[in-house]
Design brief:
2 domains; Butyryl-CoA Dehydrogenase, subunit A, domain 3; Nuclear Transport Factor 2, Chain: A; 13 helices; seven-stranded mixed β-sheet; 300 residues; alpha+beta
């Protein structure tokens, strides 16, 4: 086996983990893939004798590049039109029904709720929290990654963890209960049932709608169940008859895709707590929907 072939096989073995790190840090599949491609180029140029653990080298390099991109993205997102939501990962429910353990894991580390909340952290807080609490790096490894002292990194991780906990973004609904609420919401939307929508929503629910200035969307969060329900009824009245509401998994949690034969209108997912929808996430930015049709094989 040539050195090049061996290098490719080693990198391929750790590529998924690198992709997972980059996506959770950036909230963008496109940016994550660009980062992983850059890591691959650097891996090809790196002296092999200096690398003790290929996995650690690949993941750490990914995290450093993602941190650099997060710092530059921070300024861009300050001028983003309307709320910013992550690029969704979509699968058909019938193709990817998770086990209870898988669903809990996804809810904890790749849900829309968590990724959206992580946007409120400073770049170093986000990286430290994810590497320590999600990817099991110890404080010494995180300190090496960030170029800070170990006590400073402990404080950064602790501060980020507290903010995440205070936001109460972790799901406390099982997958089945979440799926039933998503189905009830979808049915109420299809039948223009105001009371049905209100029954699904917590009174203090909030809706984030991401059009990125490229598609019609609410420029500010919409608060309270009544306002959210009426917003969706307004959408339903304007929808062409050909549009379909398809149940899917959005980042591992039940949601739906609104589409016609070839075009994705939006992706909607929910955060659920105590038997009610507490947060609705609607993604309309076409840049973030470009992969969705392929994900669910819409053309088939």
């Amino acid at each position: 086996m040539s050195d090049q072939t061996g290098a490719e096989q080693i990198f391929h073995r750790h590529r998924d983990r690198a992709q997972a790190v980059a996506y959770r840090m950036l909230g963008s599949r496109t940016d994550a893939e660009d980062i992983v491609q850059e890591v691959w180029l650097r891996w090809n140029r790196a002296p092999r004798d200096d690398i003790v653990s290929p996995e650690a080298w690949i993941v750490t390099t990914t995290a450093r590049l993602a941190l650099d991109q997060l710092r530059s993205a921070q300024a861009r997102r300050e001028t983003y039109v309307g709320p910013w939501l992550p690029e969704p990962i979509i699968s058909r429910e019938r193709d990817a029904m998770p086990t209870p353990e898988d669903a809990l894991s996804l809810a904890d580390d790749v849900s829309m709720a968590l990724l959206h909340m992580l946007e409120r952290l400073a770049p170093e807080e986000r990286v430290a929290f994810l590497m320590h609490d999600v990817f099991d790096y110890d404080h010494h490894e995180v300190s090496t990654l960030l170029g800070k002292s170990e006590p400073a990194c402990r404080q950064i991780v602790s501060r980020a963890r507290k903010r995440v906990k205070d936001e109460s973004i972790r799901f406390n609904a099982g997958h089945r209960a979440h799926a039933e609420l998503a189905k009830a919401f979808r049915t109420a939307l299809e039948t223009a049932d105001l009371d049905g929508l209100l029954a699904c929503l917590a009174p203090d629910a909030v809706l984030y709608s991401d059009g990125g200035g490229k598609a019609a969307a609410a420029l500010n969060p919409i608060y309270t169940a009544d306002h959210i329900a009426r917003f969706f009824l307004g959408i339903s009245r304007k929808m062409p008859a050909a549009l379909d509401i398809a149940p899917v998994l959005v980042n591992g949690q039940p949601g739906y895709v609104l589409h016609d034969d070839k075009t994705i209108h939006s992706v909607t997912s929910f955060a659920v707590s105590e038997g009610k929808i507490t947060t609705v996430y609607m993604i309309r930015n076409p840049d973030k929907l470009a992969r969705v049709a392929r994900d669910i094989k819409l053309a088939e």
